[in-house]
Design a protein that fits this description.
The protein has a domain of 77 residues: 3-Layer(aba) Sandwich (GIY-YIG endonuclease). Helices cover 40% and strands 20% of the residues. The protein contains four helices and three strands, in the order H-E-E-H-E-H-H. A hairpin with a 4-residue loop joins strand 1 and strand 2.
């Protein structure tokens, strides 16, 4: 691989949150795409919703239910009621912000029965 090719791949990798894997004996590239998820949790005990973003929704749910998140630990237990998958962090963050807005709460009420 020429130096200019490497810079192009790394630039693309940084922009899209890809990772490089390889070793001193193997000069190949492995590109791994990281998907982003927004999720909506619901606490039956407190009739409360929480919207968040993560790479791994199930691990994030475990963290919420272990009390590792300050904003949700008082309302344990949580369950997942909705998820959406996105190719970029920017798109996921945009949707997360929308779902936290008044319009997003209306969407949740109309689509999830809030």
């Amino acid at each position: 691989m020429e130096e200019s090719d490497e810079k192009t791949i790394w630039g693309l990798a940084r922009l899209n949150d890809f990772s490089r894997a390889g070793s001193a004996t193997n000069n190949q590239w492995l590109v791994i795409e990281i998907m982003y998820f927004i999720y909506i949790l619901y606490s039956d005990s407190f009739d409360r919703y929480y919207v968040g973003m993560s790479h791994n929704v199930l691990e994030r749910l475990r963290a919420h239910n272990r009390g590792k998140t300050k904003s949700t630990k008082a309302f344990i237990p949580w369950g997942i009621v909705h998820t959406e998958e996105f190719e970029t962090r920017v798109l996921a963050r945009k949707r997360e912000k929308y779902l936290k807005s008044a319009a997003g709460r209306r969407w949740r009420k109309n689509n999830l029965g809030d």
